[in-house]
């Protein structure tokens, strides 16, 4: 597989680099304001989404510019926040969708429909 790269001047970026970062190992009580303070130092941020109760300790950070995202990854991977070392990765859609097993979810829905007598078939 050929490596696709982006250029800005003489800077070449690897293919996995993108504007969306996936952050793990965050303190559970971190606020959006604290996230903007930490990540905003490296460029303009379009959006930050902090995990819910099921995904506590994680967040997505979307930068306006891909080079700002790269700078943030370079500087914040391993950064200490409230005695927790951040894990900052580039978001990879293919990798995340693999974690969500669609077949398993469909089987679970079918099992629940059978258990409670719910049908999705048209009754006409």
Automatic annotation (TrEMBL):
Q: What is the lineage of its organism?
A: Eukaryota, Viridiplantae, Streptophyta, Embryophyta, Tracheophyta
The listed locations are: Nucleus
User: Where does it primarily localize?
Assistant: nucleus
Q: Which UniProt keywords apply?
A: mRNA processing, mRNA splicing, Nucleus, RNA-binding
Q: Which PROSITE patterns match?
A: RRM (PS50102)
Q: Which GO terms describe its biological process?
A: mRNA processing; RNA splicing
Q: Cellular component GO terms, alphabetically?
A: cytoplasm; nucleus
Database matches in PANTHER family = RNA RECOGNITION MOTIF RRM DOMAIN CONTAINING PROTEIN, RNA-BINDING PROTEIN PIN4
Domain annotation RRM: ranges: 19-93
Q: Does the keyword RNA-binding apply?
A: yes
Q: What is the protein's given name?
A: RRM domain-containing protein
Q: Provide any one GO MF term from the record.
A: mRNA binding
């Amino acid at each position: 597989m050929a490596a696709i790269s982006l250029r800005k001047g003489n800077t070449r970026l690897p293919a996995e680099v993108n504007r969306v970062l996936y952050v793990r190992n965050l303190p559970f009580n971190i606020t959006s304001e604290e996230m903007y303070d930490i990540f905003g130092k490296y460029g303009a941020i379009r959006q930050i989404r902090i995990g819910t109760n099921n995904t506590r300790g994680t967040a997505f950070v979307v930068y306006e510019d891909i080079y700002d995202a790269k700078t943030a990854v370079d500087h914040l991977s391993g950064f200490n926040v409230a005695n927790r070392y951040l894990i900052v990765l580039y978001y990879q859609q293919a990798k995340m969708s693999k974690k969500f097993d669609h077949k398993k979810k469909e089987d679970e829905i079918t099992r629940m429909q059978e258990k409670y007598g719910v049908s999705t078939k048209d009754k006409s």
